Amino acid sequence: MTIAIGDTLPAATFKEKTADGPVEISTEQLFAGKRVVLFAVPGAFTPTCSLNHLPGYLENRDTILAKGVDDIAVVAINDWHVMGAWAQSSGGLGKIHFLADWDGSFTKALGLDVDLSAGGLGIRSKRYSMLVEDGVVKTLNIEESPGQATVSGAAAMIEQL
């Protein structure tokens, strides 16, 4: 079953690269008592993710935060090395959280996993965005096609804030 507006996020632990190496960050640490924009991509360094989805959030980071958002995070079914390299190469390191859902457990618990094996990617996350307040989903925007980043893009999220 897919997570819905009004649902509480499932407990999960991600890995994130920092200057001191990998750290674990739990959903509790990231979302408790905070207003957070979370968006997901099928894969770091993939074309739509790197050229469209992520840049929109980085370019509009200050605008999003000015609307009362405490934090922004991107999650993908990739390992923390890949997510860390993506954070570094995109200029996003230290600006938003790059969360590695390395085994896909968070994505599967949300019901937002998709089999992209036909394209050589295996099990990945659907592309989506959500506004989470104190661990509860307030808005949820799921793309119909993994190659699109319109309903889950930064511009759409800004309108919802």
UniProtKB/TrEMBL annotation:
One of its GO terms (biological process) is cellular response to oxidative stress. It is an enzyme of class 1 (oxidoreductase). It catalyses: a hydroperoxide + 2 glutathione = an alcohol + glutathione disulfide + H2O. It comes from the Bacteria. GO terms for molecular function: thioredoxin peroxidase activity. InterPro entries: PRX5-like (IPR037944), Redoxin (IPR013740), Thioredoxin-like_sf (IPR036249), Thioredoxin_domain (IPR013766). Its EC number is 1.11.1.27. GO terms for cellular component: cytoplasm. The keyword Ribonucleoprotein does not apply. The active site is at C49 (cysteine sulfenic acid (-soh) intermediate). Keywords: Antioxidant, Oxidoreductase, Peroxidase, Redox-active center. Residues 3-161 form the Thioredoxin domain. Belongs to the peroxiredoxin family. Prx5 subfamily. Thiol-specific peroxidase that catalyzes the reduction of hydrogen peroxide and organic hydroperoxides to water and alcohols, respectively. Plays a role in cell protection against oxidative stress by detoxifying peroxides. This is Glutathione-dependent peroxiredoxin. It comes from Rhizobium lusitanum.
